[in-house]
Amino acid sequence: MFVLVKMKDAVPIPASELSKPRSLAVSNQIEKKYSNRVLLGTGLCVCLYEIEELGEGLIYPSDSAVHVRVTFSLVVFRPFIGEVITGSIHRSTPEGLWISLGFFQDIFVPPHFMQDGSEWDEEHQLWVWKSEHGDAMLDPAFGSPVRFRVTNTIFRPVKRPSKAPPAANADPTLVQQAGKRFVDRKNTPARTGQEQEQEDEPAFQVMASIKDDGLGLAIGGIVGIVCGIVF
C-alpha cells in the first residue's frame, strides 16, 4: 500500500528559515511542498521518510532564498493491483460506492464490481442487495468497515489556468476589456453536469471491487456483503 520513492530536487530555503538547523529547514520545505500532493504516475505523497544527501546552497540574483540540491525519500501511497485493504464507507451515489481510508477518500467501486443483485435505492439514496429473503439495508453514513480489492489506479493531469489575471497597474484600456470579458462570462450559460464532473475528477483515483468472496462489509467481525448492505 505504501512505497518509498527516491527524489532529487532543488529546495528553496526562505530567509526566515536560515536560522534553523540546515537539515530541519530543508525537511520543513520538503514536507510543505510534497505532503498530500499527487505525483503523476507515482501516487499520493504522505510524508518525508529521510534525507539521503544535502548539496551546497546556491543564491540567485534578486532571490533571498538559498537553493539546496537534496536527495531524499518520500513515503507514497499507491496500492498495488490485487491488494486487499480495509476502509470505511464514505458515501453512496447512483454511479457507485466511495470508500475512505481516512487520509484518502478517492476509492471508487462501480456497480459492476458490486455483488450480483445490488441495486440503487432512490428513496434511501444507497445501494441495496436483493436477496431471496427480501431487502436488507445498512446506512453507509455510519462509516461501516468494508474490505475491498484494488482493480486499477488512475492518474489524471491537473488542469491549470491558462492566463494570469491582469496586473493592477495595467493599461486602462486593457482593464476595460478584461471587465467586459468578465461581464460576458457572467452572461454565459452555466456549466453542464458533465463539465462540472470532469473538473471535479480527482488527480489520483483507486478503482476497487467488493464482489468476490471475503470482500464487502465487515459486520461483527464477519465479512458479510457489500454496498452499504448486509445479509
How would you describe the overall organization of this protein?
This protein is of the alpha+beta class and 231 residues long. The chain has two domains: 2-77, 2-Layer Sandwich (Dna Ligase, domain 1); 84-156 and 202-223, Nucleic acid-binding proteins (OB fold (Dihydrolipoamide Acetyltransferase, E2P), Beta Barrel). Helix content is 16%, strand content 42%. Mean pLDDT is 80; it is low at 181-186, 188-197 and 220-231. Its main location: nucleus. Pfam families: RNA_pol_Rbc25, SHS2_Rpb7-N.
How many domains make up the coordinates?
2
Largest sheet: 5 strands, mixed, barrel
User: What is the class of the largest domain in the CATH system?
Assistant: Mainly Beta
Within CATH, the superfamily of the largest domain carries the name Nucleic acid-binding proteins
Average pLDDT reading:
80
Distance between the termini: 30 Å
Q: What best-fitting shape do the alpha-carbon axes yield?
A: elongated
Arrangement of strands in the largest sheet: 5-6-7-12-11
Helix/strand structural class: alpha+beta
Gyration radius, rounded: 24 Å
**How many E-type strands?**
14
> Helix count?
3
In the CATH scheme, what's the topology name of the largest domain?
Answer: OB fold (Dihydrolipoamide Acetyltransferase, E2P)
Overall CATH architecture of the largest domain: Beta Barrel
Sequence stretches where pLDDT stays below 50 over 5 or more residues? 181-186, 188-197, 220-231
Share in β-strands:
35-45%
Helical content class: 10-25%
SSE sequence, one letter per element: EHEEEEEEEEEEHHEEE
